[in-house]
Amino acid sequence: MIELTLILGLFVFATLLVPNAGEDVMLQNILNKTAPQNKTLKLFKNNITPAETDTAATYTEADFTGYVATTLAGAGWTITPGAPTEAVFAEQSFTSSAGAQSQNVYGYYVIEATSGFIQWAERFTNGPYLIQNNGDVIKVTPKFTGE
Questions:
Q1: Over the stretch 66-104, which tens digit does the pLDDT of each residue have?
Q2: pLDDT reading at 9 higher than 70
Q3: CA-based nearest residue to 123, from 62, 52, 54, 47
Q4: How far is CA 45 from CA 17, 49, 68, 144, in A?
Q5: Is 64 exposed, middle or buried (0-12, 13-18, 19+ CB in 10 A)?
Q6: What residues does each domain of the chain span?
Q7: DSSP character at residue 16
Q8: Pairs from 66-71 (Cβ < 8 Å, separation ≥ 24)
Q9: SS3 for 50?
Q10: Rounded to an integer, what distance in angstroms lies between the CA atom of residue 47 and that of residue 34?
Q11: Nearest-angstrom CA–CA distance, 99 and 27
């Protein structure tokens, strides 16, 4: 089970999709065929549902004023072994720094920071979220649970 917590005034639990290209990269990392890389967390603004055949180019990155993609460095993950084992990264905030905007954000996607290859994507289950005002914020806390 893979779980993401999204906070925008409420909690949402959604299902994450690892497209074929992401599965390839992950297996290469696990089997030490290629070195893992830090990840980059991005929001997407195109109205799509993640699919198996997606690549990073499938997604149109958000570009509202104040938006900046964020790096998920490997050292930032906290992994707690057990039943289940969990990996959690600190909450990441994406905040508008201007008013009079109108941009829907439908979900997020994660790419490798150096290669740009997609890793996974997720559409917000109760989105899209409209970024319209100065101070509007979307907060994402990546969390993986393995059983």
A1: 999 999 999 999 999 988 888 889 999 999 999 888 999
A2: no
A3: 47
A4: 17, 11, 14, 24
A5: buried
A6: 2-146
A7: -
A8: 66/94, 66/95, 66/96, 66/97, 66/98, 67/43, 67/94, 67/96, 67/131, 68/94, 69/40, 69/41, 69/42, 69/43, 70/40, 70/41, 70/94, 71/38, 71/39, 71/40, 71/41, 71/113
A9: coil
A10: 33
A11: 43
Which DSSP state fits 17?
A: B
* Length, in residues, of the chain: 147
- For residue 38, give both structure tokens: 């830090």
| HEC assignment per residue over 72-139 | ECHHHCEEECCCCEEEECCCEEEECCCCCCCEEECEEEEEECCCCCEEEEEECCCCCEEECCCCCEEE
